[in-house]
């Protein structure tokens, strides 16, 4: 893996071979810095099909239904019918309704709305996390493919070198020791290629764990590097999805206190009764009105209020902790991305020769006897390893870009092509 502390000779080789394997024509992103259309379509497909998104959407719809239910009246009316055949015949009908004088409906509505906002924030977080996971797995998968392709080129070079060494041994230009070095180098290249093939399969499996259609639809790797982090300013802390969720959770918990307080206030029940009472030949109409109210004696509701307040305190503490995590993650991702982008741009700015020219030059020097077999192998291996590290550096820069956008709350903006500016 590339490190900024690598020796100058290794850095020079990286410049050389990164340019050798970079496409000749570098495309640039649109002016609004949005994702390429193929990437946008792939992410939207993942959003549609991923089970975590579907689960979060179902939870959001459930929260919406619960919010509608909380906004309904607390009490339903009751009807009663009574009949009695005795010395006095009685036939009466009545209706009763508990009156929400304590504001229970308003309190429950506020709690349901806060729970809905929390569910919507959770849905947005799931979309962001799934998108970031897919984008990083996509980069890792394409990196593994590119490294595997380069590994096959390394095997081809070592096979050619092995054949040339056998020919030179036959005419006495090199000794058996140098011939053995060529054979060992070929064996090592084949072993390394098997390892790269395993890494490619692992990366593809990680991608398919997020996107089951990844095997058939996979956007190409970007040919340009991402922009500077200052180009896309992060959202204010309170506007980021994790903070919206934490704030909604705190509001829901605070609304729960009001619900608990209103629940302990008894509401009166108003009853109206009417009918006929017949006593022998006499028949009278009767009308009755009654009011009843429960007494909060056995259960005062104080425990529920205490529990709601404790939950609100916990939600407030969680919100402060989420703010600390969000700010720290943003600083970390910004520093990481800036370092990787600076290194990647330095390699992209190199004017070094292509790998084919370098390998051809090394081969001519070896055949002319100007460098020995061991020196040839060392330089060739260094060149190939450095080129592989250059590919990894580009992939790491892109993955760090996605992490920065997620931490800044701008990943959805980048995916959907929203205008990205520094004013937000």
Strand order of the largest sheet: 1-2-3-4
Order of helices and strands: HHHEEHHHEEHHHH
CATH superfamily, please? Outer membrane efflux proteins (OEP)
> What fold name stands as the CATH topology?
Outer membrane efflux proteins (OEP)
Distance linking N and C termini = 36 Å
How many helical stretches?
10
Shape: rod-shaped
Instruction: Using the coordinates above, name the CATH class.
Output: Mainly Alpha
**Biggest sheet record:** 4 strands, antiparallel
Please compute the radius of gyration using only Cα atoms: 36 Å
In CATH, the architecture is Up-down Bundle
* Count of the domains: 1
Question: How much helical structure, as a percent, in the residues?
Answer: 55-70%
> Could you give the count of β-strands?
4
Uncertain residue segments: 1-31, 420-424
Mean pLDDT: 82
Beta-strand percentage range:
5-15%
**Helix/strand/pairing category:** alpha+beta
């Amino acid at each position: 893996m590339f490190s900024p502390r690598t020796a100058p000779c290794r850095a020079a080789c990286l410049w050389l071979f990164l340019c050798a394997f970079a496409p000749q024509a570098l495309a640039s992103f649109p002016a609004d810095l949005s994702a390429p259309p193929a990437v946008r379509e792939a992410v939207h497909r993942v959003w549609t099909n991923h089970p975590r998104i579907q689960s979060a959407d179902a939870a959001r719809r459930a929260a919406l239904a619960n919010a509608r239910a909380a906004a309904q009246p607390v009490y339903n009316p009751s009807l009663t019918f009574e009949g009695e055949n005795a010395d006095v015949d009685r036939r009466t009908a009545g209706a009763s309704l508990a009156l929400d004088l304590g504001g229970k409906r308003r309190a429950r509505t506020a709690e349901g709305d806060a729970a809905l906002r929390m569910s919507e924030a959770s849905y947005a977080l799931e979309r962001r996390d799934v998108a970031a996971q897919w984008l990083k797995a996509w980069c890792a998968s394409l990196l593994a493919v590119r490294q595997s392709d380069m590994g096959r080129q390394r095997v081809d070079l070592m096979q050619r070198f092995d054949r040339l060494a056998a020919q030179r041994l036959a005419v006495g230009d090199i000794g058996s020791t140098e011939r053995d070095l060529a054979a060992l180098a070929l064996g090592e290249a084949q072993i390394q290629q098997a390892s790269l093939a395993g890494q490619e399969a692992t990366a593809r499996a990680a991608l398919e764990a997020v996107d089951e259609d990844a095997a058939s639809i996979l956007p190409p790797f970007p040919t340009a590097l991402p922009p500077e982090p200052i180009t896309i300013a992060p959202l204010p802390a309170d506007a980021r999805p994790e903070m919206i969720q934490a704030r909604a959770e705190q509001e829901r918990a605070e609304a729960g206190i009001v619900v608990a307080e209103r629940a302990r206030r008894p509401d009166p029940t108003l009853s109206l009764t009417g009918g006929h009472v017949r006593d022998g030949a006499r028949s009278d109409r009767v009308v009755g009105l009654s009011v009843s109210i429960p007494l909060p004696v056995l259960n005062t509701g104080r425990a529920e209020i205490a529990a709601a307040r404790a939950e609100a305190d916990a939600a407030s503490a969680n919100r402060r902790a989420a703010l600390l995590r969000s700010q720290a993650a943003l600083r970390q991702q910004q520093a990481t991305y800036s370092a990787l982008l600076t290194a990647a741009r330095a390699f992209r700015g190199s004017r070094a020769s292509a790998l084919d020219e370098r390998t051809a030059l090394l081969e001519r020097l070896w055949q002319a006897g100007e460098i020995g077999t061991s020196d040839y192998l060392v330089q060739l291996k260094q060149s190939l390893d450095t080129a592989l590290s250059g590919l990894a550096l580009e992939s790491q820069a892109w993955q760090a870009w996605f992490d920065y956008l997620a931490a800044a709350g701008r990943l959805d903006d980048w995916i959907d092509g929203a205008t990205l500016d520094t004013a937000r």
